[in-house]
Design a protein that fits this description.
Blueprint (H helix, E strand, L loop, with lengths): L1 H4 L2 H11 L1 H4 L13 E2 H8 L3 H13 L3 E6 L2 E6 L1 H14 L1
Helix pairs in contact: 4-5
Length: about 100
């Protein structure tokens, strides 16, 4: 969890995914809110290669902060709001 949140780019991704319509263009496949944001859109917005973006998304997914969904050959990502709320509560109680 700490590793996932210790990277500025991953924090930026979480911020963008909170309001995907405000940060990403419409997609041909999948709804930005219902299905998540295509990994290629995330890579483009980060200005990194697709493999680099995939590594960031893998870490966020393993931490449970983001859910991945396959549609055709694409992977779409959305925040797991329930898990994020749990993490926030845990950090608050630790202080």
């Amino acid at each position: 969890m700490v590793k996932a949140l210790a990277n500025e780019r991953r924090l930026q991704i979480l911020h963008w995914l909170k309001q995907p319509r405000a940060h990403f263009p419409p997609q041909v496949e999948g709804d930005l809110v219902e299905d998540g944001v295509c990994g290629l859109f995330i890579a483009h917005k980060l200005r990194v290669s697709q493999p680099t973006a995939s590594e960031h998304m893998r870490i966020l997914t393993q931490a449970g902060l983001v859910r991945a969904k396959r549609i055709k050959q694409w992977t779409f990502y959305q925040r797991d709001e329930k898990r994020i709320a749990e993490v926030k509560r845990a950090f608050r109680s630790a202080w």
